[in-house]
Amino acid sequence: MLDSTPIPCAASRETVKRSALAGHAGYGYCASHSRYFWGFRLYVLCAPDGMPFGFELAPANASERQVAAEVLDRVQQPGYTIVADKGFAGAEFEQLILDLGCRILRPDRRNEPHRHGNLGGCRQWIESIIWSCKDKLSLERHGARKLPGLIARVAQRLLALAAAIWHNHRIHHHPVRSLVCYDH
């Protein structure tokens, strides 16, 4: 499963001007919130149970398909099926996926012939995984002021998610992505 989520780093123009993240972050658009933000986008590649096994932190204005291609190229999982959203449409990106020995499933766009349908149930998995990082692990409230701190805090949250999933597998706790028992 592949998706991205915004990681806002500043809310005002004055903060953006004096931030140590200036020169690294960028302005991007979050369609789910219908707003622009300044910061980064986190691209996460994970298994259906939520176990993250690849991620990339990129400026919010970076090309979504290019960053996803870098993550997929680095992780290289031949034979896998990548479930993504409509933002990853395009013949060039689909060819890259095929060249890596993978297959891509994504919702059909309105102007395309029917191929996969809307994939709402499958897409909900990745959305709920990212929501776990945002809500339970406070990903959007990272508090980082410099790039190394931001990278460490994002990695820390993904590692916490991975540790919880691994532990839940070991103790046969279902659902394995549940973080409720660690919420104190």
Protein topology:
Layout: E1 2-10, H1 13-18, E2 26-30, E3 35-46, E4 52-59, H2 64-75, E5 81-83, H3 91-99, E6 103-105, H4 120-135, H5 147-170
Characterise the protein shown here.
- The structure is a single chain.
- The chain is of the alpha+beta class and 184 residues long.
- It has one domain (2-182): 2-Layer Sandwich (Nucleotidyltransferase, domain 5).
- The protein contains 5 helices and 6 strands, in the order E-H-E-E-E-H-E-H-E-H-H.
- The chain has helices at 13-18, 64-75, 91-99, 120-135, 147-170, and strands at 2-10, 26-30, 35-46, 52-59, 81-83, 103-105.
- Strands 1, 2, 3 and 4 form a 4-stranded antiparallel sheet that branches. A two-stranded parallel sheet has the order 5-6.
- The longest helix has 24 residues, at 147-170.
- The model has no long low-confidence stretch (mean pLDDT 82).
CATH H-level superfamily title: Ribonuclease H-like superfamily/Ribonuclease H
Shape: globular
The structural class is: alpha+beta
Total individual domains: 1
Task: Write the CATH fold name.
Answer: Nucleotidyltransferase, domain 5
Just name the CATH architecture: 2-Layer Sandwich
CATH class membership: Alpha Beta
Short summary:
It is built from five helices and six strands. It is 36% helix and 22% strand.
